[in-house]
Amino acid sequence: MQLLETRPNPSRVMRWAAPALAILLTLLAAALIFAMLGKPPLNAFHVFFIEPLETANGWSELALKAAPLILIAQGLALGFRARVYNIGAEGQLLMGAVFASGVAIWTDGIESAWILPAMVIAGAVGGGLWGALPALLRTRFRAQETLTTLMLTYVATYFLSWLVSGPWRDPGGSNFPQSILFSDSAMFAPIFEGLRINSSIWITVVAVPLFWLFVSRSFAAYQIAVGGEAAAAARYAGFSAERTVWLSLVVSGAAAGIAGAAEAAGPVGQLTLSLSPGYGYAAIIVAWVGRLHPVGIVLAGLLMALIYLGGESAQVSMQLPAAISWLFQGMLLFFLLGADTFVDYRLKRRRVETAAARGANGA
Amino acid sequence: MSVRSSRNSTPRLELCHITKRYPGVVANDDVSLVVQPGEIHAVLGENGAGKSTLMKIIYGAVHADAGQIMWNGREVSIANPAAARHLGIGMVFQHFQLFETLTVVENIALALEGEFDLKTLASRVTSVSEKYGLTLDPQRMVHSLSVGERQRVEIVRCLLQNPQLLILDEPTSVLTPQAVRRLFETLRQLASEGVSILYISHKLNEIQDLCHHATVMQGGRVTGETDPRNETSASLARMMIGRELPVCSVEPYTGEVRPVLELKGLNYRNDDPFGTSLEAINLTVNRGEVLGIAGISGNGQAELLAALSGELLVDSASVLIEGAQVGHLHAGQRRDLGLAFVPEERLGRGAVPAMSLAENFMLTAHRDPQLRRHGLLSFARARELAARCIERFDVRCNGVKAAARSLSGGNLQKFIVGREIMQAPRLMIVAQPTWGVDVGAAAFLRQTLLDLSRSGVAVLVISEELEELFEISDRIAVLAGGKLSQPVPIEETDAERIGLLMSGVQAQAA
Amino acid sequence: MIEHLIPILAVTLAAATPLVFAGLGELVTEKSGVINLGVEGMMLIGAVAGFAGALQWGVFGGLICGALGGMLASLPFAFLTLSLGTNQSATGLALTIFGIGLSAFIGQFFVSQGLPGLQPLRIPLLASIPFLGPILFTQTFVVYLSWLAFAIVAWVLARTRWGLILRAVGESPDAAHAIGYPVIRIRYLATLFGGAMSGIGGAYLSTVYTPLWVQNMTAGRGWIAVALVVFATWKPGRLMFGAYLFGGMTILQLHAQGLGIALPSQLLAAVPYVATILVLVLISRDRKLLQQNLPASLGKPFISN
């Protein structure tokens, strides 16, 4: 069964070819599924990937969906580099939205330029706290963050559900589980008249280069990378594993929380049960497909946003269930992980190599 | 002894023109070898000579690209270790292939076929182990056994299959001199019963002491065949490495003598069920000396090293560097005070396998203000320094961008030692400096450490290789069962006395 | 009071059964050194496959379809992690996302359909034992099947050569490989077994417990099953205890009002998830206990060069 051998040096080509290969394979698999459903694949691809971008509104929607995905994935990627698997960004996003909505609801009726920044900060605090909790559980009690972050997502969902059907339910609304509509000073202003894209997108635009600088040059990011590649080497060098856990969970939680605040104060405009279409989960895939690299994540985030839009348009014009975008996301991650193997490994060759790296493989 | 004279009998094992290639290296090149029944046959060669690959081919764990294997006169192809065991080939691995959380008898059952009956097997284990003087309790968990006992498990596991050929790969690297003698008695007893023994080693005196015949390998080829009892160490060394074993030059230290590292009643209670606790360890290492700590791994070496390096935090007053209490400081803070450390695990601890040498240089060198300023790193500068390290310490590699894992063990060790020396340490701690390293690199590393100490650095070396410690140490102590013996100047002791201390006999000290 | 307890405890056993199946499967997988975080996805695929099968062939056929579905779902995971050595956490996560999507996609055809459900099977004599009889021995046959599965898993692990080999592979794949065991093949089998058991657990939900298909109907049970294996410190007996504890918690929220607990239903619904976290914390802080039982190679890819 063993097909592989370690490459002496990681392949630089595969590092960037792997996502392209994964996307290609996902498209092939998608074509197969469309064909099985009796939909001509080319037509389906047109509906999925071209139709959503034929209007200005389509581009606005793309940016609107890509912005939170990219922002969350930048935070998650930090942790993934350190092998801290925060898979509860969805819950952190919801808690960010809850905290931000709290500000909006308490300040309802007041007009002030400080409300919106306060909401963003509240969102960061809410998400950050929801990320800090698993960090505490991991560093103090060694509880695996994969499980705790995910469990906390369920807790956040039920907490939100209780808020909007109890204490924060819109008294004027018709018994729906939702809060009041936020006032204008608690909302991000639209950038273009008639389109949903709003000024919250600038948060992501500013965050990306900051993350880039941090990842490529900072000592803290180097420590995180060492910890992820070889935990014993990080201990040996005196890099604190606990600090890495805290840093990555709190930063990714805060990023998700800000994204949640921007959703509540942006396209949604209130606190509801259906605040997030699974951005927290999709961002995990965005982070991986983007090579955990700040620029790669931007491209992957745009792609994932397109899959979302395509899923919606396929629902409308081809009567396909919305769940199809989850299916594609799962396949994309499968293919990417498989392709990724070939960064560090290569297929075993029968042929004997007279490589320059003599003595590379100690006998 | 006249095993060789019975030339007309069918050989137990005959290897004909075995060749095995790996990408970039030929591990075995046209190797032929004959083992007679009841013969103790040495395969001698330095690290990387291709001995282990050859043994794995015989044991079916690796398949040769070309060549034949004859077993009792018949050509065989050995598909896997189970097939080898079927033929009557047993192997005692250098790195014991045992399962820590299983009992002795469970470990043995895993290598045996037939009915699954642990009770009956346990009594067989007891009887075989008594017959050969290899005392073992079948119901104990392997993790609670000493290294010597673990080796017994491996040997008994083989013996229960009534082997005709027993392969031992570097079996003495973890034994005390006394335990080595007991092992040799067992092996001679087996040979007298007709069992052939393939004895893999790089230790010349052992081979002269034990073996009837020796096949010498270098660079994957057979470079000689001889009766080692008729050879001298020098002549064997010439066959093995093409020259005599290099010897370090030891100069006296003339500078100021002042304690750099002091341990005062260092205690550590280990809550890892598989680990060792440290008890009241006292030690002083001075400027200008190499202090060697002997002992078999698993006796607290890992814990002591971690407590010294700061990977493990202990009571602040129990570790002092140049008089300052540092027990509570973590590894980075102790490095700020002039500590450097070369761990036993080069890949994964001393270096990050997938990262380049330049990035790995940063691992401990980042405190240089040229490398790190305002929380940002300069990788360009790291490349320059790594290149200097590669040149100065003769690291053979494909430049600073080569991944750490692409280097051979010896070259990576030179890089790590070089990196640590370039931090201008006042205290250098090195674990197993030449483990798995070829003779040339080992000599270079030993000389480097000696020179470093003579430049006024305090050097602490922890090693399992007694010969190495006697070659480079000024004083030597033994760590056994988590306790450290009183260090003594090497002129006042010998391998025999150190060996007794290693097996925990404290009364014989000095 | 005791009469009130009987139905509650009886339903607890029924509610815990998916956790028993999925937990036992994951336990075996992890014993071989593989951690599969895709249990949730495999359960969902098992649930939809089981539902489809039960429409055709009844509950038993449904369970078999669920097992096959779960096993097939675990196959890409096994290929990626074992043959290609990918990161097990990430691949398991991909399996969960994939399973959510695939099950919802297939499940669209079954959304408004129903199944007749399953009558409990009274075991003669045993069912008339006072108190215990009505709790333990008037369950559906699937519950009895879960006990059988427990007995087999516990016996194989503790008493047979297969169990010893499985433990050995999980403890040290290098040593197992060196003495000649096909590590990768054994891990494949353990992973497929885990998939089949998760599939049965999911199928039980959709064919017996509910019995309907609802999108995302496992509601985190797969993740709880993974947590239970840690809680059980990889011991089948403790796993059963944990599963029934959590089954009890999910039932408790339904009876909360009757028991005089005045918390809003949404907060009560969060209790099992909070409890999972608490249990993980309690068990994980005891390092000795975990280390003595943890399969030493858990989560580490095995590539023999």
TrEMBL record, chain A:
The keyword Transport does not apply. It is found in: Cell membrane. The chain crosses the membrane at residues 16-37, 62-80, 87-107, 113-137, 149-168, 197-215, 245-262, 295-311, 323-343. Keywords: Cell membrane, Membrane, Transmembrane, Transmembrane helix. Signal peptide: none annotated. Pfam families: BPD_transp_2 (PF02653). It comes from the Bacteria. InterPro entries: ABC_transp_permease. The keyword Plastid does not apply. It is a multi-pass membrane protein. This is ABC transporter permease. It comes from Uliginosibacterium paludis.
From TrEMBL, chain B:
It comes from the Bacteria. GO terms for molecular function: ATP binding. It holds the Pfam family ABC_tran. Residues 13-244, 261-506 form the ABC transporter domain. PROSITE patterns: ABC_TRANSPORTER_1 (PS00211), ABC_TRANSPORTER_2 (PS50893). Keywords: ATP-binding, Cell membrane, Membrane, Nucleotide-binding, Repeat, Sugar transport, Transport. This is ABC transporter ATP-binding protein.
From TrEMBL, chain C:
It is found in: Cell membrane. It is a multi-pass membrane protein. The chain crosses the membrane at residues 6-27, 34-53, 59-80, 92-111, 131-157, 188-206, 212-232, 239-256, 262-283. The keyword Membrane applies. Keywords: Cell membrane, Membrane, Transmembrane, Transmembrane helix. Pfam families: BPD_transp_2. This is ABC transporter permease.
